[in-house]
Predict the structure.
Amino acid sequence: MSTQAIRQIVLLWVMWSIVIVGYMHIAPMRYAPQRPDDSLVWTADWTNNQPYLLEPFLNEQVAWDSEFYLSIATVGYDDPDVQLVEEGNTAYSMSYAFFPFYPYLIKVVRLPFVGLGLSPIAASTAAGLAISLLGTLAAMLALADIIRDKSDEKRQVRTAFMLLIFPSSLFFATVYTEGLFVGLAFCSLALMRRDRLIGAAVLAAFATWTRTIGGVLIIPLAMSWFLAYRAASADDRATWLLRLPVLALPLLAYAIWRMAFGTEFDFVQANWFGNQLFQFELTVDAWRQILDRAQDNPETQIIVALNVGSVALALLSCLYMVRQYPRLAIFGALAVIIPLTAGWTGTQSSFRYVLVVPTLWVLLGTWTQNPTFERIWMLVSILLLGMQAFLFSFDFWVA
């Protein structure tokens, strides 16, 4: 990738960061949506009045799950200000449903902000936003690097730009894990294409500690090792055999997390969020209920349409790109399918989950080579992004 392409991507990222954060700050000053938020059956009653969501500093960048990341970073998993999930004689904080790497990283990055005199919650918010934005930049550079052999400089920049204007890309500029996760996952995939498997495995392990789906990176890791081993000379194959144990790093990371947080995570997910891995009956029931609600509720209709449309586009991108980029396609498909078969969350948040599908951005970067499609897509995508960013800044559910 040329210096010019890197410069353009960094400039796009800087200007996007200013625009999206600025827009989410300014829009609530001009107009407000009608409350309550009836988009889902539970959103009207679940108000964002938790202490971690009331801090005025960068308040538009936090809502919903941000509470738990800020709580873990500021106090810890067993924060008395966070609601407990109780069943029988067992009770755990809702925070245990969230993976540790992002909030623990916030805990470190927030230290300079505390030194600047910000309150504890404000310092955590600033650190979380900085991590999300920097992770997004890393993802953009990684995407451009992944396609460097099969595209020119303009397509590399355009592919990276597609990541920024997708209707749910606002989560890259909020205290959510999306920005950090795509940075780790896409950089890991980029290193795989360069046969730098040790670095790729380390990043995959950190991605696994960020979101459970990061463990799926072990599949493209294994594919990368096999391709490198098969292409190596007889003398070099011994070296590749010595590198084989490195592939276990994501699994090791997952095992460590399970030992530390697995029991609590399963309990909260099952008893509050209604999620269990590969629970098809639960998933079908969840979709039945949200589709029933959508018949009479226009807000729910929009959420369903965005979720279904984004998933269809993401899976199409995996099919379309599987021959050119098999590792990206397999990772992307599993990153969508696994949450979709886990119960309730997939019916409400898949519009956000598709952000981690790398082939989605490669496909859009390819299709937008056509000037007509590019203009239409950008018009639709940016208008929807503005709507979603505005709603999030008012604590309305978007994904």
